[in-house]
Amino acid sequence: MAVREAEPVGSLQEVKDAGLDREDLLGIYRNLLTTRTIEERGHILYKQGKIPGSFYTGRGNEAAAVGVGTAMGPHDVGTPLQRDIGVHITRGLEPWRIFAQYMGRVDGPTKGRDGNVHLGDSSLGTYAMVSHLPAMLPVAVGMSLAFRIREERRVAVAWCGEGAAARGDAHEGMNFAGVRRLPVVFVIDNNQWAYSTPSYLEFAVDHLADRAAAYGFEGVVVDGTDVLAVYREAKLAIEKAREGGGPTLIESVTLRMEGHAVHDDAFYVPREMFEEWARRDPIERFRSWLRDNAGLTDEEEDELSSSVKRLINEAVQRAEESPYPEASTLLDGVFATADELDAPHHR
Amino acid sequence: MPEKTYLQAISDGLRQEMRRDPRVFVLGEDVGVYGGAFKVTLGFQEEFGPWRVIDMPLSETAIMGGATGAALMGMRPVAEMQFADFVSCAWDHLVTVAAKQHYRSGTPIPIVLRLPSGGGFSGGPFHSQNPESSFAHIPGLKVVCPATPEDAKGLLTSSIEDPNPVLFFEHKHLYRRIKGEVPDDRYTTPFGEARVHRQGDDVTVITWGAMVYTANEAAGRLEQEDISVEVIDLRTLIPWDREAVLSSVRKCSKVLVLHEDTRTGGFGGEIAATIAEEAFEDLDAPVKRIAAPDCPVPFSPPLEKAFIPQVDDVVTALRDLAAY
Fold first, then answer.
1. Do A113 and B57 touch (CB under 8 A)?
2. Range A4-323: architecture per CATH
3. Is the pTM value of this prediction over 0.90?
4. Interface of A with B in 164-223 (CB under 8 A)
5. Which of A254, A293, A303, B225 is surrounded by the most beta carbons within 10 Å?
6. Please, what is the angle between helix B149-161 and helix B6-20, to 10°?
7. Is 70 exceeded by the pLDDT of residue A346?
8. Cα–Cα distance, A188 to A194 (Å, whole number)
9. Is B127 a catalytic residue?
10. Where do the structural domains in chain A lie, given as residue ranges?
């Protein structure tokens, strides 16, 4: 089974055939802008000392995240990672709660118990990552196992970085999913650098998607800066999984445009590499596609960017108004109580 | 009431829960057609089908991570490690994901992980360990170690009901050796309530799992010497019944803490420290500990016998304590 390299997305008609109307396209653009603006603002807040700990951004990965998030169905679930704030935005997590999380406030999804991008909201079908990447990949496989056991038409999406793909969790999760043809889609965000380690020191195959053949399912490589191509491939894979066709491994290729976290200036990435990928900036790329193919006007652009700016300003203010957790709550929630199992998804 | 082996009690308890609650399912290596390495799930796949009794690839990470994901989606997985020793391969998913999930995200992880543990039959370094203290140290996990068939069934039912990850240590040496009366009806045995296995007045032994029987045999021998020994079976380590321990210590004033796990960092140290903090004034002798020595579990019978605490060791220690 050879790996398939996805074509770039072409005309508006092609996109309409894939199920997106013009309003959807503007929504995608707005989600891309929101994602980037959150991270740019977060970086400033971090430098101002308003965000404790560390700060990670997904610059360059916005299209990959928003594209997959857009393809997920309302009852699908996923375990997005540290470059995937775009997934949370697309699933409907309000930006002020993301800032509250960054700042360690009680209104963040983890109420200050975990930091930075370790967040999820089960009511939106997202589950918080852990630092031990890709530990959430087998967890997503387990979610898909539950769907299979109950014969529900739901799909789980498991994210993994190209660096974490070297770990046994990825192998065990993909192998089991292949054996049982589970309704799960694996998305490898290949941003070419695992902290300072380049891909050629992480894996010896041409494409990580080549590994799919070893697990008995399809692999596809997609340009992660092309939001519509990512959407199309994710949609195909998710609907295939929903119909009982088993897993797909999507390798989405981008460049991590900043350091591993904001303390890291990424001196080890060749300058020309940054310059080359800056010309393929996913947001700029989609903006010009919208202008060329969907008649995006100056007025619409102005309106979108000013409304995103307003949203983020209000979000930061609201997050700053959120209190810090009381020290007296330190031990709350180490164990769950029986009544919590009455939550709808546990019944 | 029917008499059952410890193993049959576990099997019956699990089957009863699976009949009662469609969310309960089993996953592990060779649990299906083969019925599990120890035959706890024998016949389950015929009754419940291949999607509720899931033969997993040899992938402890996928078993534990898979159970976690299924639990997040509302299932009640009962996962099996073929031997408790192999839980090291699932450490990350227990400790990094499952144990911390509720604290940081508020989503309960109702999982039972069955762990056939313990030595006594030349299983060697990788089929004999008692790794309970490693997990008792991790906030967010519960640790259960039944000693009797009745408790094995009742505690398994409670474990499946519990909204947290529960490590269910079932001692392999008790599987077919120990029989007892087990009610047929469904019942639960509460966590954090110790059981007085044998009443006594002179010396208390605090223990759990297979060592309950070692302590009881030693106590029987000492009866002839007019030394009255109380044996407390903790039943669960997280949570553990401090009150039962302290009140027995107050009564007898002398105490031996006994476990099959190795000594340094073993859970006995926590019990001894608590007694020293809370019941110092009630003690008439220093707290004594008997545990396996700090080495891997050896294979050859004379070495293994020297490793696992024996009745003679316990008799000697209790005699010394009584005479103190």
1. no
2. 3-Layer(aba) Sandwich (3.40)
3. yes
4. 168-169, 172-173, 175-176, 179
5. A254
6. 30
7. no
8. 12
9. yes
10. 4-323
